[in-house]
Structure formats: C-alpha cells, structure tokens
Amino acid sequence: MVRSVPWRPTGPLLDPKMNTEGDDASTLGERSENAQFEQAVFQRIGHTGHQGLRRINVIVENHRIVLSGTVTSYYLKQMAQEAARQACPNLKVYNDLDVVPTQSQASCRK
C-alpha cells in the first residue's frame, strides 16, 4: 500500500466497517495500537521534509516496523529508518527499502 503526504492510514486497521466477529479485545487493541504506531511513523517521516520519502510503505506488526518501497538514495533510506526509530523507539525497525537512483543520478555517476 503506497501512501502520499499527508499520511493517513487506511485499510482494514482503521475501517469502521471492518468485520470484528470472532476478534477478541486483545487483537482489536493490538490493531489499534499498530495503527497508532503507523500514524506516528508517517508523521515523523513527513516532518523530515524530503519529497523522496512520500511513497514508502509502513507496516507495524509483531512489535516491529517494516519499511518497504523504493527511494532514490541511501541517504533517504537512512532518513526513513531514523524517523521510524525516533517515532517508536521501543519497536524494532526492519528497513526493506530498495535504493533505485533516478535517471539523472545514474548518469552523473558514470
């Protein structure tokens, strides 16, 4: 799921029509907490001001933050990771972002 600034989590975690039959209170509480962690990470990433971080994915599950998607530099990859770490210091951060330089960056390196 790719999100753009301003970030607002969407999907089943925040869908009020979500079918909760069979879910116990701890599962619902965990989903709500995960959604809050995701929101905190998106806000922190948004405050970096880097346009290259606008289209990354953030998933919080099992007490860990998973960053995925594509960025154009290792600097942006590190910025996303540090923003996630600062937003939720008690969670582990798994940085699965791929670095794919833009055409102009690639031609400058040759």
Q: Which structural traits does this protein have?
A:
110 residues, alpha+beta, Histidine-containing Protein, Chain: A, 3 helices
Q: What is the typical, i.e. mean, pLDDT?
A: 79
Succession of helices and strands:
HEEHEH
Which regions have little confidence, pLDDT < 50, spanning 5+ residues?
Answer: 1-22
Summed up, the helix count is: 3
Strand order of the largest sheet: 1-2-3
CATH class: Alpha Beta
Query: What Rg, in angstroms, do the CA atoms define?
Result: 16 Å
Shape: elongated
| Main β sheet profile | 3 strands, mixed
Please give the alpha-carbon distance between the first and last residues. 34 Å
CATH architecture assignment name: 2-Layer Sandwich
Number of strands: 3
Q: What percent of residues are in strands?
A: 15-25%
Helix fraction, binned, reads 25-40%
Write down the CATH topology.
Answer: Histidine-containing Protein, Chain: A
Number of domains: 1
Structural class: alpha+beta
Question: How does this model look, in words?
Answer:
- The protein is α+β, with helices and mostly antiparallel strands and 110 residues long.
- It has one domain: 2-Layer Sandwich (Histidine-containing Protein, Chain: A), CATH 3.30.1340.30.
- 38% of the residues lie in helices and 20% in strands.
- It is built from 3 helices and 3 strands, in the order H-E-E-H-E-H.
- It has a 3-stranded mixed sheet with strand order 1-2-3.
- Strand 2, helix 2 and strand 3 form a beta-alpha-beta unit.
- The N and C termini lie far apart (34 Å).
